[in-house]
Amino acid sequence: MLLIRQAKGHPLAGQWSIPWGVVDNGESPEDAALRETYEESSIKAEIEGLLGIQNLPEVGWLGVVFLCHHVEGEPVADGTETDNAGYFSLDEMDLLNEPIEPWCEWLVRRVLRGKYTVIHCEPNNPYHPRRAFL
Fold first, then answer.
1. Model pTM score
2. How many domains does the chain have?
3. Is 36 domain-assigned?
4. Could you read off the pLDDT of 72-113 as tens digits, one per residue?
C-alpha cells in the first residue's frame, strides 16, 4: 500500500498516511484523488473503484476513498507536503517505528487483509462521462 509521510509544518507532521487532499473548485473527487496521489508521491495511479465514504473530524468534511492501482513511477516525496513516500506490506507496517495516522492505518490494514468491497464504476449511467459508483 502506498503511504506518504507528512512533512514538517503539516497538521499531521511526522505521521504516515494515505495520499489525501481537498477537491479543487471544478474538480471531481476522482480527479482530486489521482492528482493528490501524484503530487504527494510522484505515483501515477488509476482508480479501480470506490472503497467508501468517511465523515471526517472537521465539521462538514467528507472523505471519499478510492482503491487505486499503480500505473507508473517510483514513490518520491514532494518535499513540501510530504517528506517520504513508499509502498508498505503488513509486515513492513508492523516494523515501522514511526506513527501512522490512526484512521489511515485502520483502512490500510483492512485493505491489505482483503476486508473490503470495491464498488466499481458504472459506465452506462445517464450522466456519462461523469463517473457513477453504484
1. 0.93
2. 1
3. yes
4. 999 999 999 999 999 999 999 999 999 999 999 999 999 999
Look at residues 105, 16, 112, 20 and name the one whose alpha carbon lies nearest to residue 64. Answer: 20
88/93 Cα distance (integer angstroms)? 6
Residue 56 lies in a domain: no
Round to whole Å and give the CA distance between 90 and 83. 21
CATH number at residue 103: 3.90.79.10
Residue 98 belongs to domain spanning: 2-46+72-112
Joined together, the cell numbers standing for residue 116 give: 473490503
